[in-house]
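Researcher: Hi, I'm a grad student and pretty new to this. My advisor asked me to get structures for two proteins we've been looking at. I'm not sure of the right format, so I'll just paste the first sequence and hope you can take it from there.
Model: That works fine. Here's the first sequence with its structure tokens right after it:
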Amino acid sequence: MPKNTMAAVRLHEFGGPEVLRYDEVPIPALKAGEVLVRVHAVGINPPDWYLRDGMRTLPPEWRPTVPLPAIPGSDVSGVVEAVAPDVRGFSVGDAVFGMIRFPSFGESAAYAEYVAAPASDLAHKPAGIDHVRAAGAPMSGLTAWQFLIDLGHDHPNPFQALPHRPMALGPGTTVLVNGAAGGVGHFAVQLAKWKGARVIAVSSGEHESFLRGLGADTFIDYTQGRAEDQVREVDLVLDAVGGPGSDRFLRTLKRGGALYPVFVSPINAEELERLGVTTSIAQVRSNGPQLAELGRLLDVGTVRVAIDSTFPLAQARQAHERAARGHIQGKIVLTVA
């Protein structure tokens, strides 16, 4: 393949996994503030298939305009190929990882051999993990971080009038994580344990040993009984599934407790007032410095990235088909030769 072109996966139309096409496209030009990364691995995330599907899961007024063809994806790990003159802190040959330009749907362009990334979105890859695990970390890890540890930005919240304020976690705090085996969920379990909280993990029974290995104190198999019928007096619920029905977890909270649904969920304000609890949601955003903090935990093994499966970049369709089957343990990653 000529040096000015690269392989990339693009959408020429919206639809199912079959619309993902393996194309030859120009290598992106470097702009001020950017780093050109030779990609080794790409993490896939729910926004990738939301984009592929034309954002039909979002209310029409929230759907961004995405020009086609578009390269999906935001999470990469790779090696710096070139650096814009105004960039400091990164050099050619550095191993880096990051979540690129999120939440700018359709502009991240991670399903490719090269990506031009804002330097502010990147961090040095932890030496203690490989590119596959590093690519699996950014969006899921930053989502858990910004919900539970530190929001880290002052952008307006598109989901609520007030900024999200993470609850202080520590010994004596009980956190329930629903969807605990997935990308965000398995990071949330580990970060809550890192802060000293007692963690209740909710998932299907096949993931019990995995989640106990990550530090979960209590495991609930939702196929054998509803968590909201078994648990009371929880300080915080992080619902990594979210969406309609998330409000069923309100009954698990003690007065003063909080529910954080990762995906937008309609919650009755009168019910919140009656129970004396709150709910809050955030929009995850690219953040290189936060990723560097998470990277230090990854480097020493305090937090680890679980890999469900890997696929070559050319098999992005099969990776999306795997995601559609559900029951994912950790992350699905595309590898780039």
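Researcher: Oh nice, that was easy. Here's the second one.
Model: And its structure:
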Amino acid sequence: MGREFNELFDEWSHSYDQTVTGHDPEYEEVFIDYDKILKTVAEKSTGTVLEFGVGTGNLTAMLNERGLNVFGIEPSEGMRTIAKQKLKNITLLDGDFLDFPKIDAEIDTIVSTYAFHHLTDAEKETAIQKYSELLKKDGRIVFADTVFSTEEAKQEKIRESLKRNFHRLAEDLQREYYTTIPVLQHIFEKYGFEVSFIKLNPFVWLMDAQKKGGE
């Protein structure tokens, strides 16, 4: 995974928390129930957690509140700076979904919110294969991200965004690597996971994947 979005996220870091709390009408539907979505991911997490795409640390804070041991991975220096200001005594590392420092601990849960779409489908498969080897035998992946039931559903959402003059949102949906549930289900199952998908808002789905053979 390249870091082509780093400059964007460095710039966005200062207003990110305002965006996710509904202050940008164009992205309001993307972030409906934002805190509830993060809470859902946190509550499904156990043990030692590896979090990708920490951003400003909102999910990290919830994981910490549950007493979990969290290793956070974030490629944007701007985001890391704000997360460190908000959260003390956290392990926050420079890295991304595919290129990150070796974690000297057994990982129970891998989590991410609003970030997995930065990988192409091929990169998503590489990541899931890597995580299947990294997780404990009963380990779990819990991701929440914009996903579409079909490619046609994605194209319909782009047309709808343009009709509403949400041009930045439409551009994002076309530029980044938003994928479909069938693609993700195939990848997870290929690498030994049982996965379920639950729609949490008009854009975001929860992906809950556990390694087969676990409880």
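Researcher: Is there anything I should tell my advisor about the second?
Model: You could mention this: Strands lie at 48-52, 69-73, 91-93, 107-113, 135-146, 193-199, 204-211.
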